[in-house]
Design goal:
The protein is elongated. It is mainly beta. It has helices spanning about 1-15, 125-130, 245-250; strands spanning about 20-25, 30-35, 40-50, 55-60, 65-70, 80-90, 95-105, 110-120, 135, 140, 145-150, 155-165, 175, 180-185, 195-200, 210-220, 230-235, 255, 260-265, 275-280, 285-295, 300-305, 310, 315-320, 330-340, 350-355. A 5-stranded antiparallel β-sheet has the order 9-10-12-15-14, covered by helices on one side. The chain is about 10% helix and about 50% strand. A hairpin with a 6-residue loop joins strand 25 (about 330-340) and strand 26 (about 350-355).
Length: about 350
């Protein structure tokens, strides 16, 4: 009943004061940067009745449920001031914001848009979900840039999202990037409580190896800060999708003289020993060995006599086994020598190195 009477009174005021004038002391408020821990923050907008007739605020509506205007619809006498108190709930809303409140009034201007803005610096609990990695002045979503499997000759892009946790503007700097990766900070200047990305482009023709390629990028959040190490991981592969049936039939075919170097039993006290196996080309065109590697520290000094093998020919691969480098807890040696070649049917071939450790 009371609300009905207030609307009725407002309608009467509109009718009687169609030429009434009002003035806002301000139509925008910037909260600046503040912590999410403050919860709801408030500001006040003032409307002055500059006419000789009473006026009223009819309604005030925000464009988001996180913003709440509070006001009175009571008549505003000539020369008096009415206020609209606006609250913004920052909880769970890190980052920059801008919200609008549409105010209808019985005086000119009949409709006004009020704006609030600012930047919420996320609380630790909120940021832990979106940016779980704390690294000094910034938080990151991850510390690894995974390019995945990439075709040699392409230039894939990848990025990491990060967040400025400080109340200051920062200018993160990249202080190291692998020669085959270009990187940048976007935007280069990061206001408090705002996000940025470490953007990268991988040039596969410049990578030092085929297959798995790992390296790192170092980023300093601010001058003098300890750099953040971001790992880069890619698997560079050859593209065979364009080959015709005829070309596939004429392609090289990699075979090995054994699928496993079985050393039977070895002792950790034994001296390093060299062992060999052959790579054979059973195809109809030259076999090119792109890379031979092993991640097990006990298997090292891998050498190949020829990386280009003609059809029907073979070449020797020699590896050094150092038993002293086998972990003390291991009872078995089970290493993998990975061979990457231009064989479209088997671009990656594995020869195992196995032994019982005494």
């Amino acid at each position: 009943m009371i609300r009905h009477l207030l609307h009725l009174l407002a309608a009467i005021i509109i009718t009687l004061s169609a030429s009434a004038q009002a003035s806002w002391t301000a139509t925008a408020h910037d909260f600046g940067a503040f912590s999410e821990d403050l919860g709801t923050v408030y500001c006040t907008f003032s409307l002055v009745n500059t006419s000789s007739q009473p006026i009223a605020i009819l309604s005030a509506r925000a464009n988001c449920g996180c913003t709440r205007p509070e006001y009175s619809t009571a008549p505003i006498a000539p020369g008096d001031t009415a206020t609209i108190r606006v609250g913004f709930d920052a909880v769970g809303r890190p980052g920059r914001f801008q919200k609008q409140i549409v105010v209808d009034c019985s005086a000119d201007p009949l409709r006004t848009r009020l704006t609030i803005s600012g930047t919420v610096i996320g609380a630790a609990n909120t940021l832990a979900t979106r940016f779980p990695i704390q690294a000094g002045a910034i938080r990151l979503r991850t510390l690894t840039i995974p390019y995945g499997k990439v075709i040699h000759g392409t230039t894939p892009g990848q990025y990491i999202e990060a967040y400025n946790t400080t109340p200051d503007t920062i200018r993160p700097t990249i202080i190291h990037t692998p020669s085959y990766i270009s990187s940048s900070i976007q935007p280069p200047v990061v206001p408090p409580g705002e996000q940025f990305i470490v953007s990268t482009i991988l040039y596969t023709t410049r990578t030092p190896e085929w297959g798995p390629v790992t390296d790192s990028i170092l980023v300093a959040p601010r001058p003098g800060d300890n750099p953040v190490k971001i790992e880069t991981v890619a698997i560079v592969a050859e593209d065979f999708s364009h080959l015709t049936d005829t070309q596939l039939a004429e392609a090289p075919q990699l075979d090995t003289s054994t699928t496993a170097l079985d050393l039977r039993t070895i002792s950790r006290s034994s001296s390093p020993a060299r062992h060999s196996f052959d790579i054979i080309n059973r195809g109809r065109s030259t076999l090119v060995v792109r890379r031979i590697s092993c991640t097990d520290p006990a298997v090292s000094n891998i050498s190949i006599k020829n990386t280009r093998i003609k059809p029907g020919k073979k070449t020797s691969v020699t590896v050094t086994i150092d038993p002293a480098l086998i972990p003390s807890s291991a009872e078995l040696l089970n290493a993998r020598v990975n061979i990457i070649a231009n064989d479209p049917a088997n671009p990656t071939t594995t020869v195992r190195v196995v032994a019982e450790v005494k």
